Amino acid sequence: MHTMWKGTISFGLVNIPVKMHAATENKDIQLRQLHKKCKTPIKYEKVCPNCEEDVSNEDIVKAYEYSKNKFVILDDDELKALKKEQEDKAVEIIDFVQLEDIDPIYFEKSYYLSPNEGGSKAYALLREALTDSGKIGIAKMMIRSKEQLAVIRVYEKAIVVETIHYPDEVRAVSDVPNIPEQAEIGKKELDTAKLLIEQLTTEFEPEKYKDNYRIAVMDLIEAKKNNEEVEVGGETKTKPDNVLNLMDALQESLNRAKKENPKQPKKRTTTAKKKKATS
């Protein structure tokens, strides 16, 4: 597994040399754009619209646009110095909190941590301490030129870093249009909605969820590679009924859920059996 960062995690005076590895991977299918006429990949060039000439990497500088068409130029050496200053710092766990205290909207990306040379015992110590306490650590670290707020937690046998958004990166709910403040919901509607949720409730088994679109595209690509006849389409999901009444829609959904996901009734011990068992 590729090491993308090396550093030190510290809590108190305990320092743990670690390596960081990406815990997830993007499996999106990347499609190239070709010239329809000759099937050559399209080339994208950097052109200055003002000078109307091609621009090389050596002629490009970084800048921040603080207002329309007004920029502050940032020198590469200045940015590198700031980055180096932050990277040289150990990743210090600032606080310990409960995982459920953090809303999922804050979570961004996951990374595995493995102990670097000489760090196995301290790594195991932190892992066991986090597990036994039921807590997670809050830390700051530098990843790809950005100071990240992060969660340090245990996943199976590994310590995981979960980068999380800063509060000012999460947009305010008040900015979302058309959210109803209150609505008059009938008791029967609410009870039926709860029954529907209960009927569809199950254990979380991540293995059963698949990216059906990606699988279909890969099947199509393999078929075309092998010059097989391709027929795209086939089964289409039936469109939902145009049920205007909310209660009718809930009841019909519940009826369908009961047919598709019949729940096994819980076995109850009868009074007669109980008496027999105690006699």
Distance between the termini: 63 Å
- Total number of helical segments? 6
Percent of residues in β-strands: 25-35%
Report the CATH C-level class of one domain: Mainly Beta
Which runs of at least 5 residues are low in confidence (pLDDT < 50)?
Answer: 267-279
The whole-number mean of residue pLDDT values reads 83
> What is the CATH architecture descriptor of one domain?
Beta Barrel
Report the count of strand segments.
Answer: 11
The fold-level CATH name of one domain is: Ku70, Chain: A, Domain 2
Oligomer designation: single chain
Features:
11 strands; 7-stranded mixed barrel; single chain; disordered C terminus; two-stranded antiparallel ribbon; alpha+beta; extended; Ku70, Chain: A, Domain 2; 279 residues
List the helices and strands and how they pair.
Layout: E1 5-11, E2 14-22, E3 47-48, E4 53-54, E5 62-67, E6 70-74, H1 76-87, E7 91-97, E8 107-115, H2 120-133, E9 136-143, E10 146-155, E11 158-164, H3 187-199, H4 212-225, H5 246-260, H6 271-278
Helix pairs in contact: 3-5
